[in-house]
Amino acid sequence: MSSADVKFTPFANDTEALTLGELNVENHTDHVAIFGNVAFRRDAEGLRQAQALKEVLDAVVAALSGGDLPAHAETPTGTTVKQVKNPFES
Q: Least C-beta-crowded within 10 Å: which of 20, 27, 47, 70?
């Protein structure tokens, strides 16, 4: 896939995802999550991945720039944090 093939509309749905190397970009209606790992090597594939990531981030910036934003978005209700014991520690 070339960077021109990247079609990612930020905040459009809760189903769209993109993978670049081991980097994942997940679309949601209230946020875009980027997590994982990507190494940009000095080759054609590294350039393709960098261009694709730039395209996604440019789309996120454009979507955020187009509206009146609050200082901080509210986190969804019903989300709870629970501390659990590390299963690898005795």
A: 70
CB 56 within 8 A of CB 8: yes
DSSP element (H, E) containing 48 = helix 44-65
Domain count, the chain: 1
Cα Rg for the chain, rounded, in angstroms? Answer: 17
In a domain, 43, yes or no: yes
- Summarised one tens digit per residue, pLDDT across range 25-82 is 999 999 999 999 999 999 999 999 999 999 999 999 999 998 788 888 877 666 566 7
Burial of 30 (0-12, 13-18, 19+ CB in 10 A): exposed
Domain region containing 45: 3-65
Residue 73 lies in a domain: no
**Rounded Cα gap, residues 62 and 66, in angstroms:** 6
**Taking the model in full, what pTM does it have?**
0.73
